[in-house]
Recover the amino acids of this structure.
């Protein structure tokens, strides 16, 4: 569940930041408070990205283990080659 929320955050955060950037630019162009928003959202975005990478690595490892197990069991089921 956290991984799905992280994927959603990776997609929506840049749009939220862009909207806040436009608001900052239109209301107070001399004071760039958006930098603090960028710092906080950037840290959260990197954490979400690492969480998604971890999930993909785990799924990839499980898929590789399953493929290895299937290939191993198929090799054991075959009759030996006669010479």
């Amino acid at each position: 569940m956290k991984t799905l929320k992280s994927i959603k955050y990776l997609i929506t955060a840049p749009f939220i930041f862009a909207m806040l950037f436009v608001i900052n630019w239109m209301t107070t162009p001399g004071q760039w408070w958006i930098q603090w928003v960028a710092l906080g959202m950037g840290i959260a975005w990197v954490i979400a990205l690492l969480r998604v990478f971890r999930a993909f690595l785990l799924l990839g490892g499980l898929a590789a283990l399953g493929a290895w197990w299937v290939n191993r069991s198929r090799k054991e089921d075959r009759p030996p080659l006669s010479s």
Observations:
- The chain is about 85% helix and 0% strand.
